[in-house]
Design goal:
By secondary structure, the chain is mainly α. It has a domain of 95 residues: Orthogonal Bundle (Helicase, Ruva Protein, domain 3), CATH 1.10.8. Helix content is 60%, strand content 0%. It contains six helices and no strands.
């Protein structure tokens, strides 16, 4: 049992250490820890334009490296976090943000899920009302005419006689 526990502990430790390794190279790190912390926080907000599903902090692409360096240059120059974001967006567009800002240009992006939900709810409501109107007074709702119901009753009666 001891060998099992040791093996399990080793496997769990290895799994804990596996994770998204930050792609920031040592030569990119700023000497000022406060600026570096701001740079890391900002880097998590920008999308790698090559990978498109990773932040520039997690990407090994050259363009991501260039963006990381650009962020650090702007911070060293004295820009605020918002100034850095605005500068990068002005150069690369809203797509560079992992979480796009709400604006008239992104209204469709933010409003589409709500619109789809409302359309679906409307379709279900109209469809449900249509089914209710087809139900007859007796509540059978089979949609059969009087002649068809009479024929069905006759067939069922004949079947019961034969059984």
């Amino acid at each position: 049992m001891t060998l099992f526990r040791q093996t399990l502990t080793a496997v769990l430790l290895m799994l804990a250490l596996i994770g998204p390794a930050a792609a920031v190279n040592p030569d990119e790190v700023l000497n000022d820890p406060a600026l570096e912390a701001r740079a890391r926080t900002l880097s998590l907000e920008f999308r790698c334009l090559v990978c498109q599903n990773q932040s520039i902090d997690d990407s090994n692409a050259e363009l991501a490296r260039d963006l990381r360096l650009l962020v650090r240059e702007r911070l060293v120059a004295g820009d605020s976090d918002q100034d850095v974001i605005d500068y990068v967006v002005s150069r690369y567009g809203e797509f560079v943000l992992l979480k796009p800002r709400f604006s008239m240009q992104t209204l469709l992006l933010w409003g589409a899920p709500i619109a789809i939900f409302l359309i679906g709810a409307g379709v279900m409501l109209v469809n449900g009302r249509g089914r209710d109107s087809k139900t007859d007074a007796a509540g059978t709702g089979g949609g059969l005419s009087d002649a068809e119901q009479a024929e069905l009753a006759k067939v069922l009666k004949d079947r019961d006689r034969q059984a």
